[in-house]
């Protein structure tokens, strides 16, 4: 299958590109290296020594004989470049990772909020526009987030896969319908994915585009069978307060003996998935497109739910590194429960990688190996969700 | 009250600015003249000879002694200019008309789709960002559209004001909640207003911004008591296939003896409001802000519903001009019913202007007065909603 991977140089995009290539697909990466530029902006590099994309691709070719193509295109700003690449490459599937994907980064300042909205929405809309023009039969596989559902309104409901049965009531009349789960995003970043959902819904309805939206949990781990083949194929490992995902931060902190930093009481229950399951899910989704005219297919790409404090306690118990509670920079419930439907990807053949499968130790080993590259000053999140009111700001001055 | 009107040079923005000034508010217009530039792009001027904004403002000052301020800022692209204007002017209310507002224009080409999404979403997000930074207590009054509700899923439900009671069902559990009415936009333009809704919901929740979203029906008429004071204050009258709203197009067609162009069978039922009610509604909303911490207040800004073919028959009956049915360029139901809740603005004091109030004749009189400025070649809509599939395109070549 001819597959384009937009954002194929990133944390999820790179191992996905390798996995798709290993499975025999004809893969081309499109990327603008925005994530590497953000490393420079934040002064926080990947813990693992990731290679430039050219070296990555050469190594893959040398090791496997397989070619992964590359086009340097800014999907959000270079529409002509994007449309030209689609027309030339005639993809059967397009995997869309080309969005700013960190909630704390999206909350740092007006500039970061605006960049996240501008980049993510224009990237998605440009892609949809270009597909209508040149490849309306291609299958778009988008990486969404479990965060579109929110964690405040569930009231004991299982989080369904995108759509939920509802009885609507107005003016004395009732109607039974199935609707998109009412979104309740907790950051600017998560909000952009709720906007994406409406873009997808519109283009599927008006233009008949075939779209799968994968609402992914928090990714942990860094290695896949393909990235393990050679150090030149190594994947990113973000540990900083902006891009480091919570479990990976704990594992990295454990590796260097830094206290495990829990925001608030750690009662937040979240959905998780290992990176090696991410790459499998994307292939399972890409190769099973919905039919033209179908509504957007939404699948929950996660394998298990845990409370943050339970993860910290587990890693602490394994390693002896203590837990430290910090003020929570996010505006979110201190405690929530979460039950998630994920029958879709299990039905397509996913066999979940569990936290209990020994991979926690494997990740700590990776973190220990590159511990000398860690800058401990980058570990703590410095973004805050709510700006003090001007009256409070004045009083503080 | 200090009020900013973003997009205050446009079809709704200009008479709103005059009305607010006449009511004693301290009004400043922010505009980038995008709508006038679009006239040039489309080669379709306002039927009425609108004056440059400087002349408009001078005339208003001369006639009434009241000053309306002006800042030339592109809200979607000049964040610093916008934030600076807010910091300097310290508005208590901000009326946000600064969006591309024509559905047919938004469907003309990939460039028009992309401009509409990019402009509308960045304008709204920039404004919300800047409010958080410099005037978090100001009240944002946004012009939404009845089109966010869609016309396909109602199933006999009255369209509520934004929120609808719902019983959600998942995993054997039920929850009674009030949710944003599930959106179902019918064009790229209407879709941008559904994205705006999610932006508002997010910023109201995270930052406590006070926001009113006015879901407006199709505006008809052109004159208000203030624009009638002097020809230099005259308002736009769009009659072209992109920007002309349906009833105004019929009235203008009647004035010049052009057949009344109905798309399809004309069974579309839509909500309408006269421009003089628009300006009153905006003042009623602006002066009654929700409290900080409230959810977004949503009001339906419309006064009556009609089927398109009934409007055409009414205008034809008044004038003897025949009705002509054209293929419908839109992807929409041929027939729909529509019942809309609008108790909110009525409760605030709106006395509706009805189609039966003689204003149909007044509008025809305006159109007849400027009939020599009409370019009949611009009357018919040339946008189409759906691009033929490549296979069909090839077959046609």
In short:
Two copies of one chain form a homodimer. By secondary structure, chain A is α/β, with parallel strands linked by helices.
Structural class of chain A: alpha/beta
Helix content of chain A: 25-40%
Highest-level CATH class of chain A: Alpha Beta
Helices and strands of chain A, in order, run as EHEHHEHEHHEEEHEEHEEHEEHEHHH
Strand content of chain A: 15-25%
CATH architectural designation of chain A: 3-Layer(aba) Sandwich
Number of strands of chain A: 14
How many domains make up the coordinates of chain A? 1
State the oligomer: homodimer
Q: Termini distance of chain A?
A: 61 Å
- Which blocks of ≥5 consecutive residues of chain A have pLDDT under 50? none
**How do the strands of the widest beta sheet of chain A line up side by side?**
3-2-1-4-5-8-12
Q: How many helix segments of chain A?
A: 13
Largest interface, by Cβ-Cβ below 8 angstroms: which chains and how many residues each? A-B, 60 and 59 residues
Report the principal-axis shape of chain A. globular
Average pLDDT score of chain A: 95
What does this protein structure show overall?
The structure is a homodimer of 397-residue chains. In chain A, a hairpin with a 2-residue loop joins strand 6 (163-170) and strand 7 (173-180). The termini of chain A are far apart. Chain A has 397 residues and is of the alpha/beta class. In chain A, the strands form four sheets. Chain A has a seven-stranded parallel beta sheet with strand order 3-2-1-4-5-8-12, with helices on both faces. The first copy, chain A, is built from 13 helices and 14 strands. Chain A has a single domain, classed as NAD(P)-binding Rossmann-like Domain (Rossmann fold, 3-Layer(aba) Sandwich). Chain A has helices spanning 13-22, 34-42, 53-64, 79-89, 103-106, 110-134, 188-207, 246-256, 275-286, 308-319, 343-348, 359-369, 390-396, and strands at 2-6, 26-31, 69-72, 93-96, 139-145, 163-170, 173-180, 210-216, 218-220, 260-263, 269-274, 297-301, 304-307, 323-326. At the A-B interface, helix 6, strand 6, strand 7 and helix 7 of A face helix 6, strand 6, strand 7 and helix 7 of B. Strand 6 of chain A pairs antiparallel with strand 6 (163-170) of chain B, so a sheet runs across the interface.
